Please model this.
Amino acid sequence: MEKEIIYTSNAPEPGPYSQAVKFGNLVFVSGQTSEDPETSKSIHDSVAQQTERILKNISAILEAAGSSMDMVLRVDVFLSSIEDKDEMNEVYVKFFPEKRPARNAVAVAGIDDNLDVEIEVIAGIQ
Model:
């Protein structure tokens, strides 16, 4: 089995990493921040707006890999402050309304570009 590198122009350009890697029936999406793929600029507004942009980016990457948000198995959420968890959750549940994936949400220091949220996922492929 070989790993396949996933790329879409509908998500931010990756740095020294891949947007995602497909291996067998799994897709591993790299941590995404709130960069708008059209402008290449990060959204520094509210945690809710950052979360919305991030999950749209992840959705585009999953689509390019032949998967979808419905197939997400695990989510790791990194927040600059755990105080922002409720605001992030308000948007998060719109993308995962039922059969929610396993999840970890932690506060960390130093998210890229002084942002408040970074999210990575692992998804299956049908």
